[in-house]
Each structure stands twice: as C-alpha cells, then as structure tokens.
Write a structure and sequence with these properties.
By secondary structure, the chain is mainly α. The chain starts with a helix and ends in a 13-residue tail after the last helix.
Length: 310
C-alpha cells in the first residue's frame, strides 16, 4: 500500500508521531548493540580509543559513501556554533561514563543515567516550551521503575560519582534538544558534525591512549562505528520530527533490547526481578504508544516541520 493511500486512512500527525517513535526505538536498538559489542568483542582497548575509532569509521563512511551523492549538504548548516555544541555532547557523554565507571559499579552508573528521559521531558517543557502533560511524566517515571528493577543498582547511586553518571543523561538529553532546534538543517549535516568535532578533539590526545588493537577488536570497533552512526541518525530524526516529550520515554526500550539480545546471543537468562521490570517497562511503553497515537488522532498534536523528510 502506497504512502498516499495509507495517508487517506491515517492522519498525517499520527504518521509523523509513529515515525518519530520508530526512530527512537531504532536508536535504542542500535545503542544496545553498540554497548554489547563493546563489552563482548572489543577487548584490551582503551575506552577513549574505542570512541575515537568509532567516529573515525563514522566519518569515513559518510565521506566515502555518502559524500559523492550529498556533497556540500554534509556541511551546510544554519548554525555552526550550535552544531559544534551539539557534537560536544557526544564527547561529554562517553567521558562522563568513563570517569563514572572508574568510581562506581557499572550497574549504578546506568541506573543514574536512565533518569535521562526525565531530563529530556524537563528540557522539552522548560526550554523548548513544548507541553509534556501528566501522562507522559507518569509513563516516564513508571518506565524508570521498571528499568531499576532490571538493572538492580545498590547504594552506589548515592555516591558523589553519580553526578558524572547523571551528566551522561544530561548530555544525551541536550543532544536530543539541539537536534530539535536544528531540525531545519539537513539530517546528514547534523550526523556529519556530530562525528567531526568529537573525532578532531580526540585526535589531539590520540598518542596518550592509542595501542595497536587486535583484529577482533578492529572488527568490533568497526561494527560499533557503523551501528552507532545509524543510532545517532535515528536519535536525531526522532528529535527533529517530534517534540522531546513525545519520544523521550521510548528511549527506555534500549534496556528491553539489551535483555533480549543477551538472551538470544549470549544465553543469559533473565532473573525474576528482570522479568518483572521488563513487564513494567513493556506495559508503560505500550500505554504511552497508545496515548501518543490517540493524542494525534484527536487533533491535539503539534504543528510539525520535519525538514528534509529523510
């Protein structure tokens, strides 16, 4: 069925909201794959080197594969300064993670990080002046409860280093907010600048952390680069197409993807608390999806301008 025929039966705002939610869920899947590949495949490589290699692959792919077709569209922007700041959030996020993970258990780091959908809702409401509403706040809080059941943090979440973990969430929320603000730029330009400035800055420090990786680690980092690029594209598109309040809480699906991928590829069976948390998360996500679709159908949605339509 063509999109023209489909649009006769489904309101345009509903199609836009579903596209934005799809992109956020796709980004969540990609980020889950990135974390698992980094954990299980990339070995004996500095975390900073992994980040540098990831964005090197990202840039090479865009220049070699996309460059001949899109040419100057990869660098055209209405606000270079904001693109640079947006890119730096993707440097701040891994730096905060590395520093936090050196000071507290990884589970505690991720538990604090997953306040990020709430941060995104706050930015949407207080900075962008996009109404979130009680239902979205409630769904996000319930989703966080489900995530905490799955991750099972301990008292380490109250350590001073938790501020670094919280900084991770602030960075990705700001990245999403800046994507919303820069939605009139070509999506591929935003994707290019995201990688460019992180890569250039890390190049200055490369001699300090670089060691020759094994072939397996090179393959793993290449996968991280390519899948991470798709994830960043999908994350940006979700923010460009819809208000942060609409898409933010669907980021929790990353935790569900991780549970599923661990089961399928590594045979890690979820415990009772994980199953309970996943059930809560699935229920919250399903209810929120139903609400968003119904909200757009009732005609109370937003007047969106989605840019190039990629």
């Amino acid at each position: 069925m063509s999109s023209h025929i489909w649009s006769r039966f489904v309101p345009l705002t509903q199609l836009v909201s579903l596209r934005a939610i799809f992109y956020m869920c796709l980004a969540s899947l990609c980020f889950s794959v990135v974390e698992l590949v980094g954990q299980h495949v990339v070995q004996n490589v500095s975390a900073y080197a992994t980040v540098w290699f990831r964005y090197a692959v990202h840039l090479l792919f865009m220049i070699i594969v996309l460059g001949p077709r899109y040419r100057t569209k990869l660098v055209q922007t209405s606000n270079l300064k904001l693109q640079i700041v947006r890119s730096l959030t993707m440097l701040g996020m891994p730096v905060c993670f590395i520093l936090a993970a050196q000071r507290m258990p990884a589970n505690d780091v991720w538990a604090v990080y997953w306040t990020s959908p709430l941060v995104a809702l706050a930015l949407s409401t207080w900075v962008l002046r996009e109404s979130a509403g009680t239902i979205r706040w409630a769904a996000s809080l319930i989703g966080l409860v489900g995530v905490l059941f799955i991750i099972q943090p301990d008292a380490g979440i109250f350590a001073p280093a938790a501020l670094l973990a919280f900084g991770m969430g602030v960075c990705i929320s700001l990245h999403l907010m800046f994507s919303r603000i820069l939605r009139h730029d070509h999506p591929l330009a935003s994707l290019f600048y995201t990688a460019l400035w992180v890569f250039l800055i890390l190049c200055f420090f490369l001699p300090a952390f670089w060691e020759m990786p094994s072939l397996t680690s090179v393959v793993g980092m290449t996968i991280v680069g390519l899948v991470g690029m798709v994830g960043l594209f999908a994350l940006a598109r979700s923010g460009e197409l819809a208000p942060l309040a609409v898409v933010a809480s669907f980021a929790y699906t990353e935790v569900l993807w991780t549970v599923i991928l661990n089961l399928v590829f590594f045979g890690i069976l979820p415990g009772l608390r994980t199953v309970l948390g996943a059930s809560v998360l699935v229920a919250a996500t399903a209810c929120l999806l139903f609400y968003e679709v119904g909200f757009s159908v009732r005609g109370k949605f937003w007047n969106t301008n989605s840019g190039s339509g990629i």
